[in-house]
Amino acid sequence: HPNALQLRGQTLIRMDRLDEAEVDINKALARLPGDCMVLNAAAALASARRDWPAAAEFYRRSVEAQPHDVVARVKYAEMLMTLDRFDDARGQLEAIRRIAPGDLDVRIAFAQMLQRKAPKEGPPSPEEARAAVADLAKVVAESGSPYQRARALVTRAAIELQFTGDLKQARLDAEAAMREHAGSQLDDLCRTIIENCRILEKKPGSEY
After folding, report:
1. pLDDT, the chain, mean
2. pTM for this predicted structure
3. Which of 101, 107, 200, 201 counts the highest number of beta carbons within 10 A?
4. Cα–Cα distance, 192 to 137 (Å, whole number)
5. How many CA atoms lie within 13 Å of 14's alpha carbon, on the beta-carbon side?
6. Count of other CB atoms within 10 angstroms of residue 174
C-alpha cells in the first residue's frame, strides 16, 4: 500500500538510509501523487539531501492539496526562508495565523524569520526584536513539548545575542534549551551561542 511505503520511507530517512527511502517514496508518489502524507515524506527526503528547492516544491504541493495542514505550512515557510523568499514565507505564516491563531510553531517561525532575513535585509528594529523575545517567552510558558520549548529558547537566545545585546539572558536561554532537550540537533547551536556570549562578556568595556 502506498502509505505503508511512505511510512517505511520516513523510517529509512531517520536511519539515514536515503537511497532506500527514495525507492519507497517514489513508488508511493507514483501511486498517490496528490497525497499529503506522501508529499510530506518526499519533502523530508529532499530536506535530508539538502535539496531545498525540491523540498519547498513538495511542501507547496502538500499545502495546495490540504490548505489546513498547519505542520506542512510551517515546514513550507521554513523552506521558503532557506531559499531567501521571505515575503512568501511571511504569507504562509500569516495564513496559518488565520487557520490556527494560537499555533506556537508559527510564533517560533516568525521569530526565526527576523534572524534569517537580517543578513540580506538588515537587523530588525528594537521594537521588533523585543516583541519576538516576548512572543517566544509565551511559547516557553505555554508549550507542553520539551523540544518545542527548546526551539523557542534557542531562537530567543539567538535574538538576544544578535539584536538586543542581552548576553547574560542569551547564555541562560541557550543553557536552558540544552536542558530541555539534551542530545538534539539544537545542541551545537546552543554551544555556539554560549561560547559567543562568553567571548563578548570578556571584551573590555562589556557591562557583563
Report:
1. 93
2. 0.86
3. 107
4. 21
5. 5
6. 28
